[in-house]
Design goal:
Blueprint (H helix, E strand, L loop, with lengths): L5 E2 L8 H10 L1 H7 L11 E2 L6 E10 L5 H7 L6 E7 L6 E3 L1 H10 L3 E8 L2 H7 L3 E6 L11 E2 L3 E3 L2 E3 L4 E5 L2 E5 L4 H23 L4 H4 L3 H6 L7
Parallel strand pairs: 1-8, 3-4, 4-6, 5-6, 6-7
Antiparallel strand pairs: 2-7, 3-8, 3-11, 9-10, 11-12
Helix pairs in contact: 1-6, 2-6
């Protein structure tokens, strides 16, 4: 059941330093460190390559073809936030463009994840304002129906609670619950260190077959070499 007509002004955000630390590891590593959970659907893609953000979620619930609540949400943004916008029904209209990006940036937003459409892509790219969206669409929207701000939403198939950490890059978007941020950051650090050792071995010519001890299970599975 959607909670409509509500703006929650006071939300508990994950620690900004933890969000930044998680961002250093990237989406894929954080996803793995969290137990391979938390990923939004792959249809949400960055509007330009190389975009990368990590911040705390300000959530928005909108109706199809109506971006009114994005304007309402701007007032609730604090520096380091990522706006996460969900829709009550499937829609790809152009909810967001350069004017809203200008407003969001003035409030300190790092970027936007929107389960809908985005437009003014050239301007947004020149601004280097990162957006992950379902579609690019020039179709405009109205401002007529109340949604909500800072309520739990489902965006890209993932539950997002206000204040959660959002890590997004070219690989995708992962949601880290605020209460798990410290634990996941430590796990991601350990994973990164382990991968660095493996990378050095692979660069030296060691095969993954040997490093991961794959030969015996491959033989048991029936793999045969033919000369």
């Amino acid at each position: 059941m959607f909670e409509l007509g509500v703006v929650k002004r006071n939300i508990t955000r994950a620690d900004a330093n933890l969000a930044a630390r998680l961002g250093e590891f990237g989406c894929a590593t954080v996803h793995e460190a969290m137990g391979r959970v938390g990923l939004m659907q792959t249809y949400l893609r960055p509007i330009y390559p190389g975009a990368r953000i990590a911040g705390t979620a300000v959530t928005v619930l909108m109706h199809p073809g109506d971006n009114w609540m994005l304007h309402v949400a701007a007032e609730q943004i604090k520096p380091g936030d990522v706006v996460v916008a969900a829709c009550t029904a499937d829609n790809t209209d152009g909810f967001f463009g350069d004017l809203l990006a200008t407003s969001f940036r003035a409030r300190g937003a790092l970027g936007l994840v929107i389960d809908g459409g985005c437009r003014d892509v050239r301007d947004l790219t020149e601004m280097q304002f990162p957006v992950w969206s379902k579609a690019i669409s020039a179709k405009g929207t109205v401002k007529a129906t109340l949604g909500s701000v800072n309520v739990p939403v489902v965006c890209g198939g993932m539950l997002v609670t206000p204040g959660d950490v959002i890590v997004a890059d070219d690989d995708g978007i992962v949601v880290v619950p605020a209460a798990m941020a410290a634990k996941v950051a430590d796990a991601a650090a350990a994973r990164t260190a382990n991968e660095s050792e493996k990378r050095a071995k692979l660069a030296a010519g060691v095969l993954g077959l040997d490093m991961y001890k794959m030969r015996e299970p491959l033989e048991k599975a029936g793999l045969k070499y033919v000369d």
